[in-house]
Amino acid sequence: MRPTQAGTTSTTGLSNARTGAEWNMDALRALRHTSATALAVIGTLSLLVAVRSEGQEQENVSYSSETCLPCTAAQQANWAAIRQSLLGVLGQDFTQPLLGSSHAEGKWFSFTPGKLPLCGTLSSAHYYGDNNDDDWAFNIVPAPLFAWMLQAAKDAHAMNISSGGTAIHAEIRPDYPFLPGAPFDVGTNSSVGRDVSSSLDSMCVYGPWVHDDGHTISGLIGRPEIHPAQLIWWRKIDPFRFLIGPTLVSDLVHIHLWVLQDNSSRFNWFLADNNWSEVPLGAQFDIPFEVDTAGWIFSYVIHQSYANQVVTASSPEARLDDDDGADHALLFNGVPVLEVRERQPDDDVGVRFVAVCRDSNTRKVRGYLELYTLVGTAAYGLPHMNLGGEALEITGGRYHDLLQPVSVAQRQRLTDAVMNGLAQRVGSLTHPPHPPQLASHRNVQVEIRRPHRVGSELVGDVTVVAANGAHRGQPKSPVATDAVLSRGRSISLELDSGPPIPIDLPKLAIVPVLASEIPVDTQPAPQAWGAFAGIARAGDPSSKPFASVIQAQRWIVRILPTYAPIEDDEPAGEEQTPVAEVLNRGITASASEREREMEKLFGTKQPFTVSWSFQATNLTTGRPTRVRDTERADSADVEVTYAGRFTKHELHVRFPSPAEGVYLVEAIGTVTDVYGMRGTFHQTIWSHYLTGPKDSLAAAVLNIALRMVGKTQNSLNPDVPRGVTGPSLRSPNDVLIEVARSRAIDAARDGRVTPDELEQLVTLVRAFESRR
Q1: Kind of pairing between the strands at 108-129 and 194-195
Q2: What is the DSSP string of 180-192?
Q3: Average pLDDT of 639-653?
Q4: CA angle, 450 as apex, 444 and 454 as ends, to 5°?
């Protein structure tokens, strides 16, 4: 029991004001002709119009005209923004809102050090159920309040491929089963990348705002995403009014809150510097309310439609309510104006009323219903295998007694109902049947056995090693013998009972990745700063570089072919499938095992061929430079040679000597395997770069960029809103500053910053400053 700000707790004796026998019989007869959907709604409403049994006492939060302060302009602006642009909810992580590192697995790089919300129009939804990856993915066209996120990603040279460059991608891999009652028509089909229909127009997500470099090409960073989308919410507003006995209910809102642990192990790997998704995950949801102190009462009912590893009860802080019990009320001048009823099996949601204030010009009181829940445990004792999820359904509505004027005493008695039999049957329809659960790789685990080459194809036995849970019946294994694996296919899993389940083995592509890049024969080159700054458009060449300029006479670049499934018509470099895993294990096998694995999987020790094309330019003079192999190159040429265990997968580049400028070599390598799969690799190789310790190097290049717009890092103080108490939205200006800092950290991660990386940062800062 705890008072909120100026509010106090009070104990009120409540008696039974009315029984179910007094309900309007015409209204009850009308229920017989009401649709099942409407009955489900009315069943929830029956809780809204309930009255408490006589003599029961309840602690409530109480405000008066004196203790409830007027709302400030800043409070009203935040309240309105959350209500209008965030679908009436602000969700955030109260346990770990900041990321422990700037990247995850070297593929996901954060734009900001903290997690952010994103709301907008749901453009499309996908389910990637390839029996190894149960990702749910959403493409969200940002609402006007969040349009700056898409523009900032474009300014940062992100590859905006979602929905034609108009959407930001959101993705999560929850533990099985996915939350029931999802507004997505997925049935039991687990097709890879399959579009799923949705009844939603808009939705919100919350999580790390990242660029996924598993989706990238030369010169661009990866696709902008909210990943993992740990919190998801949406709402539906019911425009109808319902007559429930003597009570009129209106302004109905249905709010759905999901709290999800990501179970991919990508974002909480205990052996890496990455803890984006630690357990437990603490969710805080702030729901703005507005109540009329002289008219209607607003009531919320909380249901829990799904719970797995909800551990709120283990945290005294998270489970703390503003008052006692599972029913909560906010009183103003002694009159209840807002009620909240918890109807989940356990009283494991913290319920509080925060930032309560009054409108000086009206009789209305505003504030937030603040909910807390804690979800997740480490599976099998492994801190990187997270399990847990929760779905809360909240129905809210205004209600008013129509039969007679409502006195203060009567309004204080509007709580739980004593209903007759018919009304109880209506109430039993509160939870309609949930749709069937979706097939999941946690119930269908596929393994490829005896992979080998036959003719021009990779074949093997597709074996199901586990099928349980929602899929009753045991698999007939193997599912397929000597199945062709190199071209992608769908296989039907036959069970000894129940319908078959489709298993998709998607088409693969080669995704060459940079294994290493090593500068050789390096020396300080401070005299090159003028040309370097000119190429990067970094201002006056006579200004200080804040870092050391280095010249590399030679570079050694190694690429490694890897396999990835094709999703949305492009290779998804961050994903894996059973076939891709088999091939990648062979490629990365130890030296003693590699040749045997290559022979088995590809029928040869050298399954890859790499063809290269080059373009070189002296950017100081703007003139092209010839690129030749060792036998034909002279000292004025860029010389290339090849090496490596795979044909030409290691590239050696030597710049002209003596160097007469800053050189750029653009290299494109095309890797092809014996099955005809191919992939392309783009790499830029520079003769000069800036260097220094990572932290100081990032600060140095950011200072260079800021100098171009007349700023210093000390001048980038965040906007501090005044007069705000309670939930508030971050200023886009603050976030854009963090994006610039994060991009500087990304550029300096390898201890080197090239002219194109510095130019991108300068361009980014200029674009941000133009919109401040």
Answers
A1: antiparallel
A2: TT-SEE-TT---T
A3: 87
A4: 120
